[in-house]
Amino acid sequence: MRDWLREHPEVRTIRMAAADLNGQARGKRLPARFADKAVKSGTRFPYSVLNLDIWGEDIENSPLVFESGDADGILHATERGFLPMPWLEAPTALLPIWMFHDDGRPFDGDPRHALARVLERYKARGLTPVVATELEFYLIDDSDRELRVPPSPRSGKRRPGADTLALRALDAFDRFFTDLYDGCEAMDIPADTAISEAGLGQFEINLLHTDDALKAADDAWLFKMLVKGLARRHGFAASFMAKPYPDQPGNGMHMHFSVLDHAGRNIFDNGGPEGTEALHQAIAGCMAAMPASMLLFAPHANSYARLVPGAHAPTGIAWGHDNRTSALRVPSGPPVARRIEHRVAGGDINPYLLMAAVLGAALVGMEDGLAPPPPITGNAYTQNLPQLPTTWADAIAAFAGSDLMPRILPAELIRNYLMTKRQELHYMAELSPEEVIELYLDTV
């Protein structure tokens, strides 16, 4: 880690940051000359900081605050090490950190530790998940009360309508995307294909698969920061909120995963299109956990505006082969690449909690030998399927009452997350629709 800073003497300041339950970066700024101390000794801030609400406020009656004297945890650097922050004008380094107790135990309220705990269970079985993500976002001119697509820096004109997979839509913001790919390379984020999506000013970028799911979650978390930061440098906003415009498609975050055994073989591959028993068990586990996981896949008030029939976001609990209307899709292609695409989550999620929930549910399915119903064919929206929770309150109730969730996430994180979402639900009732958009546009 120290070598990176020596190779970048231009860096004058450092940010140390961890992800809270909402995926917000919480941390500190310090001069680069104190970097050695930061790496060796870590830093301290209250446990409660990883359990703030979306406004950055304490959770009322949380045992992490007054009841415990608002005690400190200690945060150490993750294996990621120092990274550049290309969206800032001054050369700056980011040091991702995560929280522990003084005796070295992981803090169970840290979402990165929740994912690490799931991955340890895979490792104990000689298994390794392979994960990739697809992230959708909007570029937005929010300089006025009415949100609009930004004018193209090349032509000065605004895109008049959606233009799916149009090169001209990408080329209109070529300088931004060039800087974005340069930033991804500098930060070791494996950004692959970019496309224009169905929404007005909407784009999607794929992050390549990796057999290090913690890195995949880091990549998604860092990518969201990079996209939003660079957009501001270019004079507009970028937003991953689930539904910035009521009349445009929502932002999703699709997660692809397969599982390797100790010999590196894909346990979902049986040489044919149908896949193995392990594939079907993983699908069944994901389906069984889906209602309770909805609060993680759709964590905010705005999230549920995306989840309506016929809007390219799933509403029923089903799976299918190469079927984009189903919640779980098994893509076609070479059997060696057989995998599950989980299509429920919005772009406004915490990537660590998303991956913990999905991979944890799949593992429960394999551990319990669950069997899924037959795959659907045709349009899922027209079929009589079990439905996902359609409101924030229903999702909170499903999460709170779940017997499966304690098998996936630590009890402390479940408690903290429930208190957070109940507080947000309470105070969100006081906001106008315009205030809701303003709240989420930059934060999620």
Would you write up a description of this structure?
The structure is a single chain. This protein has helices at residues 2-7, 35-41, 111-124, 167-171, 174-186, 213-233, 277-297, 351-368, 392-400, 411-428, 433-443, and strands at residues 13-19, 25-31, 43-46, 72-77, 83-84, 92-100, 128-140, 191-196, 202-210, 237-239, 253-260, 319-321, 328-330, 340-342. The chain has 444 residues and is of the alpha+beta class. It folds into 2 domains: 2-107, Roll (Ubiquitin-like (UB roll)), CATH 3.10.20.70; 118-443, Creatine Kinase, Chain A, domain 2, CATH 3.30.590.10. The strands form 2 sheets. Strands 7, 8, 9, 10, 11, 12, 13 and 14 form an 8-stranded mixed sheet that branches. Strands 1, 2, 3, 4, 5 and 6 form a 6-stranded mixed sheet that branches. Helix 9 runs antiparallel to helix 10 (411-428). It is globular and about 60 Å long.
**Strand/helix succession:** HEEHEEEEHEHHEEHEEHEEEHHHH
Number of domains: 2
Largest sheet: 8 strands, mixed
CATH superfamily of the largest domain: Glutamine synthetase/guanido kinase, catalytic domain
Terminus-to-terminus distance: 29 Å
Described by the principal axes of the CA atoms, the overall outline is: globular
Strand content bin: 15-25%
Low-confidence stretches: none
In terms of structural class, how would the helical and strand content be classed? alpha+beta
At CATH level 2, the architecture of the largest domain is 2-Layer Sandwich
- The Cα radius of gyration reads 21 Å
Say what oligomer this is. single chain
| CATH level-3 fold name of the largest domain | Creatine Kinase, Chain A, domain 2
